[in-house]
Specification:
142 residues, alpha+beta, tt1808, chain A, 4-stranded mixed beta sheet, 3-stranded antiparallel beta sheet
Length: 142
């Protein structure tokens, strides 16, 4: 059992099956199998922007068969050319806000497949590399 992120080899590729076994406090995302540590807590302004957007989107979704979630909420990005299982999923991200219209994509662990709308709130702490990688991942997967 992995209980500390320092037990992981950050130079190898991991899968969602691996991700499910980790028992540490650090928040991480997997982007194409590579571990990306998330900051411990967002800045206050980031949280204000997130809260304001979330409330407005949630109010709209109340009158529609949509669901809206704020981070942390796992979105498992799937490769449509491979069989879908925990070993084939190489990307698990936690967007700031996620909207799902196709409710069959939801399960107890989050969203399996591409949400209909992902919102990432940029702040000084976001690295350009992370944002480029996540944007690229989102773009590739619709």
């Amino acid at each position: 059992m992995i209980t500390d992120i320092n037990q992981l080899d950050l130079t190898i590729q991991y899968t969602y099956a691996d991700y499910l076994t980790w028992q540490f406090e650090d928040r991480v995302e997997l982007i194409r199998g590579v571990i990306s540590k998330m900051s411990p807590a967002p800045m206050r302004l980031h949280q204000e922007v997130l809260g304001n957007l979330f409330v407005q989107i949630y109010r709209f979704c109340e009158n529609h068969p949509f669901k809206v979630y704020a981070a942390p909420f796992d979105v498992r990005v799937i490769n449509k050319r491979k069989p879908i299982n925990n070993q084939s999923i190489l990307s698990v991200v936690q967007p700031d806000i996620t909207v799902i219209c196709e409710l069959n994509k939801l399960d107890d662990r989050g969203c399996l497949g591409s949400p209909d709308w992902i919102i990432e709130i940029l702040s000084p702490g976001n690295s350009k590399k992370e944002m480029k990688e996540k944007y690229s991942l989102y773009e590739e997967n619709g």
